[in-house]
Design brief:
The structure is a homodimer. The first copy, chain A, is of the alpha+beta class. The first copy, chain A, has one domain: Alpha-Beta Plaits, CATH 3.30.70. The first copy, chain A, is globular. Chain A starts with a strand and ends in a 7-residue tail after the last strand. Chains A and B meet through helix 1, strand 2, strand 3 and strand 4 of A and helix 1, strand 2, strand 3 and strand 4 of B.
Chain lengths: 101, 101
């Protein structure tokens, strides 16, 4: 499995809009086992995204999906920057859900 | 919802054992919506744990469960320390699974 933990910084006042865009379409991404979007209680503009994919390849393929491309195009103007980013190798646990084809 | 992203450092050579202990019992924790254990590909002793709970209270209550207390007692000697820790407010996404009672 392939995991990502990342912090995204929304443009001032745009966090809710950006979270809504990020939320659209999750669940219809092949190879996605978990994709959770959270706000940061210590920073009014920060968003945490934690992801688990079957493989690095399935994550990369998702970036080419029309629905994801559309979300990226729509969300990009609302992104002011990025914070921490960690790549992980998920082993197991609870909440890894095979997405429906 | 209440989220945690945290890095745990295992004692030298103990990461696999610690991951196994952490994995035992996840899924039978009331209020737990996601609990994913990952290794860090850049540090042979580091573990990332990403958690989503219904509330801060359900997380705190889980620490008192006998199964979790037992895991803590068993795992503690294998923990060398902790790294980054972030509290989040999960909004949604994919892979939030209500645990069975």
């Amino acid at each position: 499995m392939y995991g990502l933990i990342g912090k995204m910084i929304a443009a001032e006042g745009k966090r809710d809009d950006l979270i809504r865009i990020l939320s659209e379409g999750t669940g219809s991404m092949p190879g996605c086992l978990s994709y959770i979007i959270a706000s940061d209680p210590t920073d009014a503009n920060a968003i945490w995204i934690t992801e688990v994919w079957e493989s690095k390849e399935s994550h990369e393929a998702s970036l080419k999906l029309p629905s994801v491309q559309a979300a990226i195009a729509k969300g990009r103007p609302m992104i002011a920057g990025f914070g921490e980013r960690f790549i992980t190798e998920p082993i197991g646990g609870y909440g890894l859900v095979k997405s429906k084809p």
